[in-house]
Design a protein that fits this description.
26% strand; four-stranded mixed sheet; alpha/beta; elongated
């Protein structure tokens, strides 16, 4: 199993090119199920999650062709309307095939993602919305069985804001009969990117970027060409790495408007940020200042940046409070950061972090995707060697992170 060996204490300088957004690419790839025509996609990131979702849809009959930096999908020969457990268990985003399959083919059999219980992360909101659109759904032996001759437009108000729920229902609604209104819709840029692609394919959607989406169903969608937006979480992760290790780095092919809340906190921490249409420059010369924040839905502070900022706060001047409101069990990196010398206490869903002078390198174990990133950031800022184990989590969401970090001066290598 691969590990990352990091020899910390190196300042970072140079340029990094940001990849396409994982959380936009996954639903956009699933949109390939909605049409028999070619879908030409650019800026798809090279990630394990992308490989997994592509493999899942290939076994359904979707044709996937790589032409240089372009991925071409064709859904003319889809015959298997099933997402089996062995392919879904590693990635919750696989649930995103449910809406497109049901909308275009009238039926679907999809494993509950990760073998989760309904209600633990809101898969139930997907089901509730599809039932409101006339689908007959039952759950048996860990599978969702769904049928509908043709989905009907409906007004759907989700009990909570759910990104994948909004995306699934949006893809279902574009081929439904009549008007669908999605209230309490997620406003994340990745949802907007999916909606913009669907419009290019012939969908009729109003309210993109707002919490109320109005969709007029159409009979069929056609092919289109689309470039996936930049990954705002990869952007934020590299900015936090520079803020922790110090340096002067310019990020290319990204936009500051995708993560305003995180940039505000970086400025508060002492980073100097400048930006243009497709670049962000960060300069960090001093020890960071402690910053407190509370995760919330977009446009608030993203839960996917909580762990990276916590690593920064660990070596900051002062005490900070980090409150996690989106996911339970998202403080699993705390124990590992404390192994590196951090001083973090947990009270309920709030972490209290007393800044220390420095991290000291040690072996640590990644527990999830963003926790992995926080440990890499800590290792870059640490004195001595840090060995990060279980980096298969990291490969799910970051495209060649160690290569990009090496290019800007980090002493980091992948070891077996």
């Amino acid at each position: 199993m691969d590990k990352l060996l990091i020899r910390g204490g190196k300042r970072l300088s140079g340029e990094v090119t940001i990849s396409g957004a994982k959380n936009a690419a996954l639903p956009i790839l699933c949109a390939g199920l909605l049409t028999a025509d070619d879908l030409h996609l650019k800026n798809i990131p090279h990630l394990q999650d992308v490989i997994t979702i592509t493999k899942l849809m290939k076994q359904m009959g979707l044709r996937v062709q790589e032409n240089g930096d372009e991925t071409v999908l064709n859904g003319n020969d889809i015959t298997k309307l099933e997402a089996p457990y062995e392919m879904v268990k590693t990635m919750r985003a696989s649930i995103l095939v449910l809406g497109p399959l049901l909308a275009r083919f009238g039926e679907a059999k999809v494993s509950l993602p990760g073998g989760c219980a309904i209600g633990s992360r809101p898969v139930d909101q997907h089901i509730k919305g599809l039932q409101a659109m006339g689908a007959e759904i039952h759950i048996d032996a860990g599978y969702i069985y769904a049928k509908a001759k043709r989905l009907k437009g409906a007004r759907i108000v989700t009990d909570m804001i759910t990104v994948t729920g909004t995306e699934n229902l949006l893809m279902a609604a574009v081929l439904a009969e009549g008007e669908t209104v999605l209230e309490n819709a997620a406003r994340e840029p990745e949802v907007g990117d999916l909606a913009n692609l669907l419009v290019k394919m012939g969908a009729k959607i109003e309210g993109i970027g707002s919490d109320r989406l109005v969709i007029q169903g159409v009979d069929k969608l056609h092919g289109a060409t689309h470039e996936v937006i930049a990954d705002r979480i990869e952007t934020g992760t590299f900015l936090c790495a520079v803020a922790a290790a110090g340096g002067d780095v310019t990020l290319r092919r990204t936009r500051s408007g995708l993560l305003d809340a995180a940039l505000d906190k970086l400025r508060e921490a002492g980073a100097i940020l400048t930006s243009g249409e497709d670049w962000i420059r960060i300069q960090m010369a001093a020890r960071p200042k402690a910053v407190s924040f509370r995760t919330t839905e977009y446009p608030g502070f993203p839960t996917d940046m909580q762990a990276q900022f916590m690593a920064l706060n660990c070596i900051a001047d002062g005490t900070s409070h980090v409150t996690e409101t989106i996911f339970e069990n998202r403080f699993m990196h705390v124990q590992e950061l404390n192994r590196l010398g951090a001083a973090i206490d947990i009270e309920g869903n709030t972490a209290i972090i007393k800044g220390v002078d420095k991290f000291v390198g040690a072996p640590v174990m990644a527990t999830d995707l963003r926790a992995s990133a926080s440990l890499v950031i800590a290792g870059l800022a640490a004195q001595g060697e840090t060995l990060v184990e279980r980096i298969y989590h990291l490969d799910r969401g970051y495209d060649r992170m160690e290569a990009k970090l090496s290019a800007i001066g980090a002493d980091i290598e992948r070891v077996k």
